[in-house]
Amino acid sequence: MANTTTAPAAAPVATDLPLPQPVPAAETGSRGVLGTITSARDKVTTAKDNVTKTRKKIRSLGWRTRRASYPWYAAAATATLGVAGSVATEFADGPADLAIAGGTGAVALAGGWQLAKRCSEQIEKAGMTSRVQAGVVASCAWCLTTPLTGANALEMWLALGLGTVALSARWWQRIRPGYPAGTDLVLASPTDLVPTTEPDAEAGAVVTAAESILEAWNATVTIPTGLLPGAQLTDPQVADHRVSFTIALVPGKQTVQDLRNLVGKIGSAIGFFAKDITFDEGATPTEATMAVRISAEVDTTYTGPIVIVEGQDIFIEIGPYVDGEGAPRYHVAGPNSVNSGFVLGSKGSGKSRVLELIADGLRALGFEIWWMDPQGGASSKALKDHADWSLMGLDSDEGELELAYIGNLLHLWRAVSNVAKIREAENVAMGLDGFTHTRERPAIMVMIDECHKAFNVKNPITGNTFGYDFGELDRVTRKLGIGFIGASQIFTMDTFGNSAALRSGMITGNLLIMRMMEKSHCGLLPGSAPSPLSLRKGGGYGYAIDTDREHVMWRARNIGDHAAEFLAAKPKATLDARATKAAGLVYRNRHKTAARYTEKALATLEAFDAAPEATALTMLTSGPRQAEQDTSTATSAAPASNAGGGMASVRVLPVRPSAQNTTSAATGVGAVAAPDGVPTADLKPGAQRVMILLRDGQAWHTKDMAAALSISEQAVRGHIRSIGETRLDNLGKGRYRIK
Does 333 have pLDDT greater than 80? Predict the structure, then answer.
């Protein structure tokens, strides 16, 4: 039990002791004068503060009661017109009195009718149409009669006052100062701002800005001739570096989309740039939320992936919205499915860094990451070095030399196709509705930067673009644990290989748009997408389309140059045995291939440095097949061909030894064997395609090969004859397979 200490009782005060007396000001010298001055200044300051507070209270009271005063404004106008007519009749004779009376009545009728027509929407909304019409007629009658009876007639003033009260009673019943009734919202005064954080200098600046926004809105935007007549700005809420309001829209006349279309003009009216203003839907169709960014930048420090799991849905945060309200999320997976995505942005917009953010989140989740960079790994060194399978460039020396320029694409397409087939069989055998990611059976995310370079290439096996073939796979792979994420600077159908299926699969739900400077591509975006031209410079800014806040700009967290560190700190995924087997030998040898690519790049640099200029330039401009031929020819030539220190002995694409290699007497070029032992280098392109098709080891009928290659059966039989019996087994009835 805690110890309790009791304070000693205070000693009694002796009443007979003399109390200290105040020192007269005259005896304090200059201190008395200074004290008097200071006291006077304090009084002046207090008086000024009181005047300011009083003005604010009066202004607030006038503001709160302004709509309740509308009937009195109409009565005052009627009284002014009637009195003016009465004064005019005093200086007129006979029939002129009737003319003046008729004129004032006509003016009252015309003015009231015009005003009622101009404010018909608000009048109909309040259900006051019949009363306003009666008021216009009564005003006309009063202005017609007053010039004849005289302005000093007491009964006329009683009629005006009682008539105003009678016709306005229902209006006052519905419009009560300071209290909302029904769907009518009362405009908050600038003094009602309540900061949601502790008051400081920044909060004070935000409050001041909020006051100016309220005043500017009601002075320019909501007036009958303004941008949004009748739209009321209410409920200001101050937090951090922004202020948000609720906007009461006029039913049937205004929508949130109207606000977004007018954001530039609204920004000009309230004194802020359009990029700092965002509009969101409210609780009802007649409500909207406006957030205005006042000051300070959102925090984009990256300390690791933010993964959000909501039931069976998995999300990765990209970065905060610039107004500080939440953050866009990349929807990685849903119930029994893996989602695809697309990142659009010009050079320097930060799309590669966004891919790294997503990849780091995928690595934390245990996803298998297959990364293809058509630029040879230049887009992201982090993913090139740390993806589970890195395909650096479209070219490959793994397999068919005739098709080396798209070898990696072929490997990727075959691997995805085969894994999809085996997982489809697993779903059927195990009675699964789709795919649920686990670390034991991980999902695969195929990420392709500058994907337009890959998807628009023609697949020599099917005759389609790779975009079309991947699009057909994307129709089913989301239920098989395989997704695609592409990034590009272009947003035409060519980006997706003219495949509507691939485009739809990649942009539905996960479309991230970053800064774009090409107006023609901006015009191809979905209709609801804001223009990427409005995004700020500096990189990392974007919009997340098909989300609850697609019109709000965000900024990606700044992973900077640390993506490799974050990726390396997390364990890589381990693909399950069936999927590994289905992916094929090229996948299983991927680490050796990556090492050989590095060695090849070093050898190329050494060869380039050692070669004379003419030979070096030829090396840069020749394709893989030509380089192989040049290398092999030079290798078999006499040593004298290299006497000048040229490139004759340099092997640009190394020839792998094989027992089935053959040598052409004419050229001396070795027929290079593919990894599975199928020689293809000495075959014509058509025959090579047949051999590629037969690489699976299965028996193929000529009609099936013709359908797969989009050629005639006669052409297939001609290619088979050119291949020869030494390589193919004839199983009868037009069926063949590789020996």
Answer: yes
Measure the CA–CA gap between 566 and 360, rounded to whole angstroms.
7
Tokens standing for residue 109: 């009728």
CA angle, 357 then 362 then 368, to 5°: 130
pLDDT of residue 175: 60
Distance, in Å, from the CA atom of 461 to the CA atom of 410, rounded to the nearest integer, reads 9
Closest CA relative to residue 438, chosen from 573, 584, 577: 573
Residue 379 has, within 13 A of its CA and on its CB side, a CA count of: 29
Residue 179 has what DSSP assignment? Answer: B
Alpha-helix runs per DSSP H in 387-499 = 407-430, 452-455, 466-477
Chain segment 286-326, per-residue pLDDT in tens: 899 888 887 667 888 999 999 999 888 999 999 998 877 88
Among the ranges given (122-131, 230-239, 353-362, 670-679), the one the predictor scored with the smallest mean pLDDT: 670-679
CA 545, chain centre distance (Å):
5
Tokens of 54: 């009083």
CA 256, CA 109: separation in Å to the nearest integer?
37
- Distance (Å, whole) CA 585 – CA 642: 37
Surface-to-core class of residue 5, CB atoms within 10 Å of its CB (0-12 exposed, 13-18 middle, 19+ buried): exposed
Q: Which two tokens stand for residue 693?
A: 């098709």
User: 555, 483, 478: which is closest to 515 by C-alpha?
Assistant: 555
Specify the pTM. Answer: 0.56
Q: Is 219:211 a contact under the CB 8 Å cutoff? A: no
Strands 368-373 and 444-449: parallel
Question: Could you identify the residue written with the tokens 């088979």?
Answer: 720
Q: Which tens digits make up the pLDDT trace of 365-388?
A: 999 999 998 877 778 889 989 999
339 closest CA partner among 218, 507, 225: 507
Rounded Cα distance, 81 and 111, in Å:
11
pLDDT of 336 > 80? The answer is yes
Compute the Cα dihedral for 625, 631, 636, 642 and give only its sign. Answer: positive
Question: What span, in angstroms and rounded, lies between the C-alpha atoms of 672 and 659?
Answer: 10
- Dump the DSSP string for 512-578: EEE----HHHHTTS-TTPPPGGGSPSSS-EEEEETSTTTTS-EE--B-TT-HHHHHHTSPPP---HH
Rounded to whole angstroms, what are the CA distances from 311 to 315, 336, 487?
11, 12, 29
Of 695 and 579, more confident: 579
What is the β-pairing status of strands 232-239 and 482-488? Answer: unpaired
Tokens at 494, concatenated: 């060519």
Q: Residue 557 and residue 308: Cα distance in Å, rounded?
A: 16
Q: Provide the phi-psi class of 560: left if phi over 0, else alpha when psi is between -120 and 50, else beta.
A: left
Cα–Cα distance measured from residue 236 to residue 211, given in angstroms and rounded to the nearest whole number: 9
Tokens of 365: 């989740």
Do the beta carbons of residue 132 and residue 89 sit within 8 Å?
Answer: no
Do residues 231 and 195 touch, judged by C-beta distance below 8 A? no
